[in-house]
Amino acid sequence: MDIGLIGLGKMGGNMRQRLRNGGHTVVGYDRNPDVSDVGSLAELVEALPSPKVVWVMVPAGEATRETVAELGTLLGQGDVVVDGGNSRWTDDLANAEALAVSGIGYVDCGVSGGVWGLENGYALMYGGDEADVAKVQPAFDTLKPEGDFGGVHAGKVGAGHFSKMVHNGIEYAIMQAYAEGWELLEKAEMVDNVTEVYRSWREGTVIRSWLLDLMVAALDDDPGLSKIAGYADDSGEGRWTVEAGIEHAVATPAITAALYARFVSRQDDSPSMKAVAAMRNQFGGHAVKTPAPPGGDADGQAPEQAGAAKKAAAASDQPEGES
Q: Tag placement on the chain: N or C end, fewer CB within 10 Å?
Protein backbone atom coordinates (compact mmCIF):
# COMPACT_ATOMS: atom_id res chain seq x y z
CA MET A 1 0.00 0.00 0.00
CA ASP A 2 0.93 3.69 -0.22
CA ILE A 3 1.06 5.55 3.08
CA GLY A 4 2.22 8.93 4.34
CA LEU A 5 4.16 9.09 7.60
CA ILE A 6 4.58 12.32 9.54
CA GLY A 7 7.30 12.41 12.21
CA LEU A 8 10.50 10.48 11.54
CA GLY A 9 12.08 10.44 15.00
CA LYS A 10 13.21 7.42 17.01
CA MET A 11 10.09 5.38 16.31
CA GLY A 12 8.73 7.05 13.18
CA GLY A 13 11.98 6.63 11.28
CA ASN A 14 12.19 2.94 12.15
CA MET A 15 8.54 2.43 11.27
CA ARG A 16 9.14 3.94 7.84
CA GLN A 17 11.98 1.48 7.29
CA ARG A 18 9.98 -1.53 8.48
CA LEU A 19 7.09 -0.59 6.19
CA ARG A 20 9.46 -0.21 3.24
CA ASN A 21 11.09 -3.52 4.09
CA GLY A 22 7.58 -5.00 3.86
CA GLY A 23 7.09 -3.71 0.32
CA HIS A 24 5.01 -0.61 1.04
CA THR A 25 5.55 2.79 -0.54
CA VAL A 26 6.11 5.33 2.24
CA VAL A 27 6.25 9.10 1.80
CA GLY A 28 7.74 10.57 4.96
CA TYR A 29 7.67 14.13 6.24
CA ASP A 30 9.63 15.60 9.14
CA ARG A 31 10.63 19.09 10.17
CA ASN A 32 14.22 17.90 9.75
CA PRO A 33 14.85 18.13 5.98
CA ASP A 34 17.75 15.66 6.26
CA VAL A 35 15.33 12.78 6.90
CA SER A 36 12.22 14.05 5.10
CA ASP A 37 11.09 12.77 1.68
CA VAL A 38 9.03 15.89 0.93
CA GLY A 39 9.12 19.52 1.95
CA SER A 40 5.62 19.95 3.41
CA LEU A 41 2.43 18.21 4.46
CA ALA A 42 0.80 19.42 1.26
CA GLU A 43 3.51 17.71 -0.83
CA LEU A 44 3.07 14.51 1.17
CA VAL A 45 -0.69 14.45 0.58
CA GLU A 46 -0.23 15.27 -3.12
CA ALA A 47 2.15 12.32 -3.52
CA LEU A 48 -0.37 9.74 -2.26
CA PRO A 49 -3.03 7.99 -4.35
CA SER A 50 -6.65 7.99 -3.13
CA PRO A 51 -7.96 6.88 -0.75
CA LYS A 52 -5.07 8.44 1.10
CA VAL A 53 -3.78 7.07 4.42
CA VAL A 54 -1.60 9.37 6.53
CA TRP A 55 0.00 8.14 9.77
CA VAL A 56 0.98 10.79 12.36
CA MET A 57 3.92 10.09 14.73
CA VAL A 58 4.59 13.42 16.43
CA PRO A 59 4.62 14.38 20.14
CA ALA A 60 1.25 14.07 21.86
CA GLY A 61 -0.74 17.17 22.67
CA GLU A 62 -0.72 20.40 20.72
CA ALA A 63 1.73 19.17 18.06
CA THR A 64 -0.56 16.26 17.17
CA ARG A 65 -3.72 18.35 17.33
CA GLU A 66 -2.23 20.96 14.97
CA THR A 67 -1.00 18.30 12.55
CA VAL A 68 -4.39 16.55 12.43
CA ALA A 69 -6.17 19.89 11.95
CA GLU A 70 -3.91 20.77 9.01
CA LEU A 71 -4.50 17.36 7.46
CA GLY A 72 -8.21 18.07 7.74
CA THR A 73 -7.73 20.92 5.24
CA LEU A 74 -5.66 18.80 2.83
CA LEU A 75 -7.44 15.44 2.78
CA GLY A 76 -10.92 14.59 1.57
CA GLN A 77 -13.79 12.13 1.46
CA GLY A 78 -12.69 8.55 2.10
CA ASP A 79 -9.16 9.38 3.29
CA VAL A 80 -7.92 8.22 6.71
CA VAL A 81 -5.71 9.78 9.39
CA VAL A 82 -3.95 7.48 11.87
CA ASP A 83 -2.62 8.93 15.13
CA GLY A 84 0.13 6.56 16.25
CA GLY A 85 1.57 8.79 18.98
CA ASN A 86 0.88 8.73 22.69
CA SER A 87 -2.20 10.93 22.55
CA ARG A 88 -4.80 10.88 25.28
CA TRP A 89 -7.92 9.02 24.16
CA THR A 90 -10.10 12.07 24.76
CA ASP A 91 -8.16 13.89 22.02
CA ASP A 92 -9.10 11.08 19.64
CA LEU A 93 -12.80 11.75 20.10
CA ALA A 94 -12.35 15.44 19.26
CA ASN A 95 -10.06 14.74 16.28
CA ALA A 96 -12.39 12.12 14.81
CA GLU A 97 -15.40 14.42 15.14
CA ALA A 98 -13.59 17.31 13.44
CA LEU A 99 -12.38 15.16 10.52
CA ALA A 100 -15.76 13.49 10.04
CA VAL A 101 -17.22 16.81 8.88
CA SER A 102 -15.11 16.43 5.72
CA GLY A 103 -15.70 12.70 5.38
CA ILE A 104 -12.19 11.86 6.59
CA GLY A 105 -11.81 8.71 8.69
CA TYR A 106 -9.77 8.56 11.88
CA VAL A 107 -7.96 5.65 13.56
CA ASP A 108 -6.10 5.93 16.85
CA CYS A 109 -3.24 3.47 17.36
CA GLY A 110 -1.25 2.85 20.51
CA VAL A 111 2.23 1.67 19.55
CA SER A 112 4.61 -0.27 21.80
CA GLY A 113 8.05 -1.51 20.89
CA GLY A 114 10.34 1.45 21.35
CA VAL A 115 13.68 1.48 19.59
CA TRP A 116 13.51 -2.31 19.11
CA GLY A 117 10.45 -2.21 16.87
CA LEU A 118 12.30 -2.14 13.57
CA GLU A 119 13.77 -5.58 14.26
CA ASN A 120 11.09 -7.16 16.47
CA GLY A 121 7.91 -5.46 15.29
CA TYR A 122 5.52 -3.19 17.16
CA ALA A 123 2.59 -4.16 19.35
CA LEU A 124 -0.38 -2.24 17.96
CA MET A 125 -3.69 -1.39 19.64
CA TYR A 126 -6.04 0.48 17.30
CA GLY A 127 -9.51 1.93 17.49
CA GLY A 128 -11.90 3.12 14.78
CA ASP A 129 -14.60 2.08 12.34
CA GLU A 130 -14.14 -1.24 10.55
CA ALA A 131 -14.00 0.42 7.13
CA ASP A 132 -11.29 2.88 8.19
CA VAL A 133 -9.24 0.19 9.92
CA ALA A 134 -9.43 -1.97 6.78
CA LYS A 135 -7.69 0.76 4.75
CA VAL A 136 -4.76 0.72 7.18
CA GLN A 137 -4.69 -3.05 7.84
CA PRO A 138 -1.83 -3.87 5.41
CA ALA A 139 0.40 -1.43 7.32
CA PHE A 140 -0.71 -2.87 10.66
CA ASP A 141 0.12 -6.38 9.44
CA THR A 142 3.63 -5.33 8.42
CA LEU A 143 4.42 -3.31 11.54
CA LYS A 144 3.27 -5.93 14.07
CA PRO A 145 5.53 -8.79 15.18
CA GLU A 146 5.40 -12.06 13.27
CA GLY A 147 2.91 -14.60 14.58
CA ASP A 148 -0.61 -14.52 15.92
CA PHE A 149 -0.21 -11.78 18.50
CA GLY A 150 0.86 -8.16 18.69
CA GLY A 151 -2.05 -6.46 16.93
CA VAL A 152 -5.65 -5.84 17.98
CA HIS A 153 -8.63 -3.82 16.81
CA ALA A 154 -9.55 -2.82 20.35
CA GLY A 155 -12.85 -1.10 19.58
CA LYS A 156 -14.25 2.23 18.48
CA VAL A 157 -12.29 5.49 18.21
CA GLY A 158 -10.31 6.06 21.40
CA ALA A 159 -10.02 2.37 22.27
CA GLY A 160 -6.50 2.07 20.88
CA HIS A 161 -4.99 4.85 22.93
CA PHE A 162 -7.04 3.90 26.00
CA SER A 163 -5.64 0.35 25.76
CA LYS A 164 -2.10 1.68 25.31
CA MET A 165 -2.60 3.96 28.33
CA VAL A 166 -3.51 0.98 30.50
CA HIS A 167 -0.57 -0.96 29.01
CA ASN A 168 1.79 1.80 30.09
CA GLY A 169 0.23 1.96 33.55
CA ILE A 170 0.90 -1.77 33.97
CA GLU A 171 4.42 -1.16 32.71
CA TYR A 172 4.96 1.39 35.50
CA ALA A 173 4.03 -1.17 38.14
CA ILE A 174 6.14 -4.00 36.70
CA MET A 175 9.21 -1.79 36.36
CA GLN A 176 8.78 -0.54 39.92
CA ALA A 177 8.62 -4.11 41.26
CA TYR A 178 11.81 -5.11 39.43
CA ALA A 179 13.51 -1.93 40.66
CA GLU A 180 12.54 -2.39 44.30
CA GLY A 181 13.64 -6.03 44.21
CA TRP A 182 17.00 -5.01 42.78
CA GLU A 183 17.54 -2.41 45.50
CA LEU A 184 16.65 -4.92 48.23
CA LEU A 185 19.06 -7.53 46.86
CA GLU A 186 21.81 -4.91 46.65
CA LYS A 187 21.31 -4.02 50.31
CA ALA A 188 21.36 -7.64 51.57
CA GLU A 189 24.87 -8.67 52.63
CA MET A 190 24.35 -12.37 51.93
CA VAL A 191 23.74 -11.88 48.18
CA ASP A 192 27.07 -11.71 46.35
CA ASN A 193 26.01 -11.26 42.72
CA VAL A 194 22.73 -9.45 42.17
CA THR A 195 23.12 -9.25 38.39
CA GLU A 196 23.45 -13.03 38.14
CA VAL A 197 20.40 -13.51 40.35
CA TYR A 198 18.39 -11.36 37.95
CA ARG A 199 19.90 -13.17 34.96
CA SER A 200 18.86 -16.54 36.43
CA TRP A 201 15.24 -15.38 36.53
CA ARG A 202 15.15 -15.02 32.74
CA GLU A 203 14.28 -18.70 32.31
CA GLY A 204 11.88 -20.93 34.20
CA THR A 205 10.39 -18.33 36.53
CA VAL A 206 6.92 -16.79 36.56
CA ILE A 207 8.38 -13.26 36.50
CA ARG A 208 10.46 -13.62 33.34
CA SER A 209 9.75 -10.93 30.75
CA TRP A 210 11.34 -8.66 28.17
CA LEU A 211 11.60 -5.93 30.81
CA LEU A 212 13.61 -8.34 32.96
CA ASP A 213 15.88 -9.02 29.98
CA LEU A 214 16.43 -5.30 29.56
CA MET A 215 17.12 -4.86 33.27
CA VAL A 216 19.88 -7.47 33.00
CA ALA A 217 21.26 -5.72 29.89
CA ALA A 218 21.37 -2.44 31.82
CA LEU A 219 23.21 -4.11 34.71
CA ASP A 220 25.70 -5.66 32.29
CA ASP A 221 26.33 -2.20 30.82
CA ASP A 222 26.66 -0.52 34.21
CA PRO A 223 26.99 -2.86 37.24
CA GLY A 224 25.45 -1.14 40.23
CA LEU A 225 23.98 1.53 37.91
CA SER A 226 26.50 4.02 39.21
CA LYS A 227 26.37 6.05 35.98
CA ILE A 228 22.63 6.77 36.30
CA ALA A 229 20.99 9.21 38.69
CA GLY A 230 17.99 7.93 40.66
CA TYR A 231 15.56 10.15 38.75
CA ALA A 232 12.79 8.92 36.46
CA ASP A 233 10.44 11.01 34.33
CA ASP A 234 6.92 10.00 33.38
CA SER A 235 5.35 10.39 29.95
CA GLY A 236 1.90 11.23 31.30
CA GLU A 237 0.19 7.92 30.57
CA GLY A 238 0.67 6.67 34.13
CA ARG A 239 -1.16 9.76 35.37
CA TRP A 240 -3.95 9.22 32.83
CA THR A 241 -4.31 5.58 33.94
CA VAL A 242 -4.71 6.60 37.58
CA GLU A 243 -7.24 9.27 36.58
CA ALA A 244 -9.18 6.74 34.50
CA GLY A 245 -9.21 4.38 37.49
CA ILE A 246 -10.74 7.11 39.61
CA GLU A 247 -13.29 7.92 36.91
CA HIS A 248 -14.37 4.27 36.61
CA ALA A 249 -14.08 3.51 40.37
CA VAL A 250 -11.37 0.93 39.69
CA ALA A 251 -8.64 0.73 42.34
CA THR A 252 -5.11 0.92 40.85
CA PRO A 253 -2.87 0.86 43.96
CA ALA A 254 0.20 -0.71 42.32
CA ILE A 255 0.14 1.64 39.32
CA THR A 256 -0.53 4.65 41.54
CA ALA A 257 2.33 3.77 43.89
CA ALA A 258 4.70 3.35 40.94
CA LEU A 259 3.71 6.77 39.59
CA TYR A 260 4.18 8.41 42.99
CA ALA A 261 7.58 6.75 43.34
CA ARG A 262 8.69 8.60 40.22
CA PHE A 263 7.56 11.87 41.78
CA VAL A 264 9.58 11.06 44.90
CA SER A 265 12.63 10.34 42.74
CA ARG A 266 12.73 13.98 41.72
CA GLN A 267 13.27 15.02 45.32
CA ASP A 268 16.02 12.57 46.26
CA ASP A 269 18.46 10.22 44.53
CA SER A 270 16.63 6.89 44.65
CA PRO A 271 18.48 3.58 44.08
CA SER A 272 15.36 1.86 42.73
CA MET A 273 14.78 4.76 40.32
CA LYS A 274 18.22 4.10 38.86
CA ALA A 275 16.79 0.75 37.77
CA VAL A 276 13.59 2.30 36.39
CA ALA A 277 15.61 4.92 34.49
CA ALA A 278 17.91 2.19 33.15
CA MET A 279 14.99 0.11 31.84
CA ARG A 280 13.35 3.18 30.21
CA ASN A 281 16.66 3.87 28.46
CA GLN A 282 16.99 0.27 27.30
CA PHE A 283 13.56 -0.08 25.66
CA GLY A 284 12.76 3.44 24.56
CA GLY A 285 16.08 5.26 24.30
CA HIS A 286 14.83 7.71 26.93
CA ALA A 287 17.57 9.98 28.24
CA VAL A 288 19.01 9.33 31.67
CA LYS A 289 20.56 11.73 34.12
CA THR A 290 24.04 11.15 35.50
CA PRO A 291 24.86 11.57 39.19
CA ALA A 292 25.77 15.11 40.17
CA PRO A 293 29.40 15.93 40.98
CA PRO A 294 30.05 18.02 44.09
CA GLY A 295 28.45 21.41 43.47
CA GLY A 296 26.75 20.21 40.29
CA ASP A 297 23.19 19.51 39.21
CA ALA A 298 21.46 16.14 38.78
CA ASP A 299 22.57 15.75 35.16
CA GLY A 300 26.23 15.91 36.10
CA GLN A 301 26.71 19.55 35.14
CA ALA A 302 27.41 22.71 37.03
CA PRO A 303 24.20 24.63 37.84
CA GLU A 304 24.60 27.21 35.08
CA GLN A 305 25.40 24.53 32.49
CA ALA A 306 22.52 22.39 33.64
CA GLY A 307 20.05 25.23 33.25
CA ALA A 308 21.03 25.75 29.62
CA ALA A 309 20.84 22.03 28.92
CA LYS A 310 17.37 21.77 30.43
CA LYS A 311 16.11 24.68 28.34
CA ALA A 312 17.47 23.07 25.20
CA ALA A 313 15.86 19.74 26.09
CA ALA A 314 12.52 21.39 26.74
CA ALA A 315 12.60 22.97 23.29
CA SER A 316 13.31 19.70 21.48
CA ASP A 317 10.74 17.14 20.30
CA GLN A 318 9.50 14.69 22.87
CA PRO A 319 10.55 11.08 22.26
CA GLU A 320 7.83 8.74 21.09
CA GLY A 321 7.21 5.42 22.70
CA GLU A 322 6.95 3.99 26.21
CA SER A 323 6.55 5.47 29.66
A: N
**Alpha carbon distance 79, 84 (integer Å):** 16
The residue with greater pLDDT, 90 or 319, is 90
DSSP state of 205: S
Q: What confidence tens digit (pLDDT) does each residue in 66-123 have?
A: 999 999 999 999 999 999 999 999 999 999 999 999 999 999 999 998 888 999 999 9
Q: ω before 271 within 30° of 0 (cis)?
A: no
Stated pTM of the model: 0.82
Cβ-proximal residues to 88 (8 Å cutoff; 6+ apart), any chain: 60, 161, 165, 236, 240
By mean pLDDT, which of 135-144, 209-218, 284-293 is the weakest? 284-293
244: enclosing H helix or E strand? helix 237-247
Q: CA dihedral defined by 314, 95, 256, 173, rounded to 10 degrees? A: -80
Residues 164-290, CATH architecture: Orthogonal Bundle (1.10)
Please tell me what DSSP assigns to residue 323: -
The catalytic residue positions are 164, 171
Q: Which residues of 183-212 are buried (b: 16+ CB within 10 A; e: fewer)?
A: beeeeeeeeeebbeebbebeeeeeeeeebb
pLDDT band at 288 (very low <50, low <70, confident <90, very high): confident
Class level of CATH domain 2-157: alpha beta
pLDDT, mean of residues 240-252: 96
At residue 312, the pLDDT reads: 31
Of 59, 60, 43, nearest in space to 4 by CA: 43
The residue ranges of every structural domain in the chain are: 2-157, 164-290
